[in-house]
Design brief:
Order of helices and strands: EHEHHEHEEHEHEHEHEEHHH
Structural class: alpha/beta
CATH class of the largest domain: Alpha Beta
Radius of gyration: 20 Å
Distance between the termini: 23 Å
Shape: globular
Bound molecules: adenosine-5'-triphosphate
Length: 359
């Protein structure tokens, strides 16, 4: 998927990037992503990045009483693209008990409906699955409705019952599925809908719209699978999938499972993409257990920069994105070079240095 502002020619261009390191390891991994972006920039012709950092997240709430002040958001949305670390801290919660999640607010406010999460195995040593050397698929998660749609509704612990709603709209589903099919056209041309159409009316409707939209893409194979079955198949035969598309909550859960089979959350980048705006960030959270210790894996965030460069779609940024994928492949070819989450001893900054050096 590319930016609606895609620059088709080779014209010089400066892209303004809002950088939101956020909380916990968000700060650690964003520093390495910016390091690699600057190293890529130095190798590109006529493309520059103007970075502006903003304080958003649980830390900002502790400072100002608002995790994302309106004036900050107004400035953030003026940028060409947003690079985000991770947000939220377990001890900083709204009175109802939910964690601060401005990254979810941004998705909803900017209508970033397409949560694009590529899952790729860089080295056979990094998967817990036996005899797998090739894992390469993508999860497309609906980002603005589904079972998250009532997440901000107030409730009381004294209520007799509390219900969440799984919202499926025709507009939200059509735009999601069209994105999934377009992405499949850049890959192996197969889209699998993940649903629970055998039980939930909302999911049966979701499936109906999926097969309607599939007719617009006769060159792409379309099938469907139940969400419970897909957890089995992802472990038994991950190579049978190309693009998986699903509702918000299912996508949230499946993303972690999928990350686990390619080495964990530190290897899972993502792009939250709408028609005009996009945010690129690792799929993981702020991991406060390891924050500030210099041991977080920055690869997911570095790969998110590669996705950002692809989305900007200038010939030079496309070249920059390919440079990052190549550098990660080269660094990961040596199984001794791994961060702690992958059984190694390389620190966060050293991994950033190695990838920058391998560009
Ligand atoms: P969220 O709900 O915001 O996605 P979470 O509570 O599911 O967050 P994460 O913050 O993603 O959890 O962390 C889950 C586990 O994975 C933690 O034990 C954390 O240490 C580990 N982890 C997550 N990201 C990384 C990383 N980049 N490098 C190393 N370990 C990580």
């Amino acid at each position: 998927m590319s930016s609606s502002n895609a620059n088709p020619g080779n014209l010089p261009k400066t892209y303004s990037v809002a950088v939101l390191p956020g909380d916990g390891i968000g700060r650690d991994v964003t520093a390495e992503a910016v390091k690699v972006l600057r190293a890529v920039e130095a190798r590109l012709h006529g493309v520059r990045f103007d970075l502006t950092e903003y304080s958003v997240g649980a830390g900002e709430f502790l400072r100002s009483g608002d995790p994302m002040p309106e004036a900050t958001f107004a400035r953030i949305r003026e940028h060409d693209v947003i690079l985000l670390g991770a947000m939220g801290l377990p001890d900083v919660r709204w009175p109802g008990g939910q964690e601060m999640a401005p990254q979810l607010d941004i998705r909803e406010k900017l209508e970033l409906y397409c949560g694009y999460r590529p899952i790729y195995l860089y080295h056979p040593n990094d998967t817990p699955l036996c005899n797998r050397s090739q894992i390469d698929f993508a999860i497309i998660r609906e980002n603005t409705e589904g079972l998250f749609s009532t997440r901000t509704q107030p409730y009381s612990l004294y209520d007799e019952q509390v219900a969440d709603q799984l919202l499926v709209t025709r507009r939200g589903s059509e735009r999601l599925f069209r994105s999934a099919f377009r992405i499949a056209r850049t890959r192996r041309r197969k889209v699998t809908l993940v649903d629970k159409a055998n039980v939930l009316p909302s999911m049966s409707y979701f499936r109906h719209i999926f097969h309607e939209v599939a007719k617009e893409f006769p060159d792409v194979e379309a099938d469907h699978v139940y969400v419970d079955a897909v957890t089995l198949y992802l472990l038994q035969r991950p190579e049978s999938f190309d693009v998986l598309v699903t509702e918000n909550m299912f996508g949230d859960i499946l993303s972690d499972l999928a990350a686990a089979i390619v080495g964990g959350m530190g290897m899972a980048p993502s792009g939250d993409i709408g028609d005009k705006y996009a945010v690129f960030q690792p799929s993981h959270g702020s991991a406060p257990d390891i924050a500030g210790k210099g041991i977080a894996n920055p690869v997911a965030t570095i790969l998110s920069v590669a996705m950002m460069l692809e989305w900007l779609a200038h010939p030079e940024t496309l070249r920059g994105g390919a440079m990052i994928y190549g550098a990660v492949r080269r660094v990961f070819a040596d199984p001794a070079v791994r961060t702690r989450d992958l059984g190694g001893s390389v620190g966060t900054a050293e991994m950033g240095d190695r990838i920058a050096a391998a560009l």
